[in-house]
Amino acid sequence: MLDPKTFICSRCGECCIKYIVKLSKADIEKIKKKGYSEEDFVDIDKNLPGPTKFVLRKRDDYSCVFLVKNKEGISSCKIYGSRPSVCIQYPFLKKNVETCKPVAFSN
Ligand code: SF4
Ligand code: SF4
Fold this sequence. Notes:
The protein is of the alpha+beta class. The protein has one domain (15-89). The protein is 20% helix and 11% strand. It contains four helices and four strands, in the order H-H-H-E-E-E-E-H. The strands form two sheets. The chain has a two-stranded antiparallel ribbon with strand order 1-2. Strands 3-4 form a two-stranded antiparallel ribbon. It is globular and about 35 Å long. Bound molecules: iron/sulfur cluster (2 copies). Residues 16, 21, 56, 64, 66-67, 77, 79, 83-84, 87 line the site of one iron/sulfur cluster (SF4).
């Protein structure tokens, strides 16, 4: 079981590719304050369960539009200080988390 107190992210970036990030209105407003417009990063996924249908946009390779990788393969988030609440909480979105590696295209 992963422990939030001791968990260290290796910055592989896998979750920023395979995880579908739901966006709240507050998330969207926070990111817009960084200078992005909704057309840059918001998509609608009508198949999502629950009332929230807004998700972070992905590139053709399924990576989040804000994901960057350096030459050493270390991933970073272009909006780290303003990232959505799901990204802040990840991987501790549920109880008893065994791994931070997401199942392919989960939410
Ligand atoms: S999959 Fe795990 S180790 Fe990789 S970036 Fe996400 S949280 Fe970090
Ligand atoms: S907003 Fe940042 S932390 Fe969240 S999925 Fe995109 S790159 Fe990853």
